[in-house]
Automatic annotation (TrEMBL):
It is found in: Cell membrane. GO terms for molecular function: acyltransferase activity. It is a multi-pass membrane protein. This is Probable alginate O-acetylase AlgI. Keywords: Acyltransferase, Alginate biosynthesis, Cell membrane, Membrane, Transferase, Transmembrane, Transmembrane helix. Its main location: membrane. Pathway: Glycan biosynthesis; alginate biosynthesis.
Amino acid sequence: MVFSDQSFVFLFMPIAILTCIAVLRTRLFHLAILFFSLTFFYWSSGALTLILIFSITLNYAGAYLIHWFRRRWVIGLLIFINIAVLAYFKYTYFVLGTAGFFGSEEVGKFAASIILPIGISFYTFQGVSYLIDVWRREVPPEPNIITFAAYQAFFPQLIAGPIVRYVDVTKDLHSPKFSADNFAAGAARFVLGLSKKVLVADAMASVAEAAFSQGTDLSFASAWLGAIAFTIQIYFDFSGYSDMAIGIALMFGVRFRENFNHPYAASTITEFWRRWHMSLSSWFRDYLYIPLGGNRLGAGRTYANLLIVFVATGIWHGAAWTFLLWGLYNGAFLILERLFLPRRLDGSIGMRMFYFFPVVIVGWALFQSPDLATFGTFVANMATPFTVGAFSLPPEMMVAFTPYSIAIFAFAIAAILMQGYARPAGVMLENATTPLAKFGRLSFIATLAAVCMIFVLTQRYSPFLYFRF
């Protein structure tokens, strides 16, 4: 079940929200959140829900062990167990295959039988952040296991984030900020996120899939159009999910931090990572980069720390050489920008158009490529505009480029180029103060919701890209 499913939009979400609102001022509120969250996860993952329950139990009890004993080996062991569980499910197949163990039929069957629990990267990092914050005395251990379980399993962010820290939501969990205004704002945010997913991201998915499925049969045009389509898809897909998660939580009276801040308005890779998937970026900054020494130990150590962080970022996204190389790719550009980028060029239009966008698009081509050979083909074709058939498109891409997808492609590019200069949807949703503006906002949201419902009722199943992480 995903947020754009008919079953979620028309059945699960309304029942969950109305039930939790009905018991808002009672002791049943957190129990209701936990019930619906575990139901949501079981609907998607079945018996793998036990892994989530194990993580909740481990981190709830572990926080008290840290609080009572205050020994480094205790928190070290707890973090190790969390990461070991994640590594087992996420990296066993990759490690065994890389090490050459698949020559054994039994090993191959064992590795292939391991199913990755949906959302394990997100709820594992939430648990680790909670343990570290308890160790740092930034929060006390949560006394009520139901309340803690409701935090770690809270279904809006369970599958694809944002990575929500306990310190950021503990007040709202204990005293939900439910109001008519928050509910309306949350509903509007959910509709905006749903529109990003079903109106834009899904339209670009068919174009990107057609390009990345071609193997070596690519041209200059098909490589660039496919990479640009994926650049559009991943932003509207992932930011759409984050908008929906933030909106649903707000309808419950719980406020999440923002996860995106117009990342394509950046002009450098350094700035991009301050704006993209901010909950993950800040997590690695606070729990890995700064403990490693950050930028306090000289230039050489700073660059080494940046590479370590971005290797970890790449591996966090998936168990493949493409993700590892993607992390190194981004880390290398951060270091190059620190070394050679003149500050007077940072933020200029030229930097954005002729440096930032090409680097990001090539990076996303690497991210989406199933293997390094496919990426090599992409890069080779993106760099050769003067060959025979350079501007031809394969039949699959011709089919994918329907009048609707062409219109969405053009709209999305315009919206991306406008980032940092105008926010029409944001203005419509946030800055309505006069009666006429409020009526306009309501009309805009209602129209957008109606269009989204039509798409939800007619489109095929389309999971979010970050479900696989």
